[in-house]
Amino acid sequence: QKQLADALNLSQQIVSNIERNTTAADVDFLHGAADLYKISLDELIGRKMLITEESSYEQQILNVVETMDDTKKELSLRLLNEVAQQRGDKDGE
Question: What is the pTM assigned to this prediction?
Answer without folding.
Answer: 0.48
